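Z., the sequence and structure:
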Amino acid sequence: PAGRKYAIEIRNQEWLDAEFADLLRQHRIALVLQDLFYMPRADELAKKFDPITADWTYIRWLGDRKGIEQRTMTWDKTIVDRTKELTSWVDFCYQTKRRGVTVYAYANNHYAGHGPATVRHFRDLWRKKGFPELPLPQPSPPQPPPPAEPSSNPPAKRSAKQSRKQSRKQSPKQSPKQPSLFD
């Protein structure tokens, strides 16, 4: 549907080629760029084809879930030093932003041990390179609930569980543009 952004995350290396990227580009669907231990990163993909397939992109720093869970199950501090990888991502994001592409990024706790610390580390590396200051992300404004549909029957009493289930079925209204890490 128009007015929505779509991204697709592929976890099969065989699918990642110029033909697939061109298909996504034709439909303005962003290819999710990921840092996952068994998948090629964006800088590796860029050697084969342009991995930017829309006017925005979404990066997921995911890491190696099984590997890090062998070291910790507490997600309150950095366990794995990802300076080398994040430095590469800083350079990639800077070049992507210079192209006018909006960049959204997500850091999973399994990437380095603590998602918020990963984002802080990325921002510190960005700043040390002398790139323009990144604004802090802002929360989205609360969205009003969708209007109730008129009914000819009197409202039946619902349990809390039924109410939650019904509210999940209703589609949310289009929200305003989400701030990215780089807006």
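Residues 38 and 115 are 20 Å apart (CA to CA). The beta strands are 7-8, 30-31, 33-36, 56-63, 102-107.

Let me know what you think.
H.
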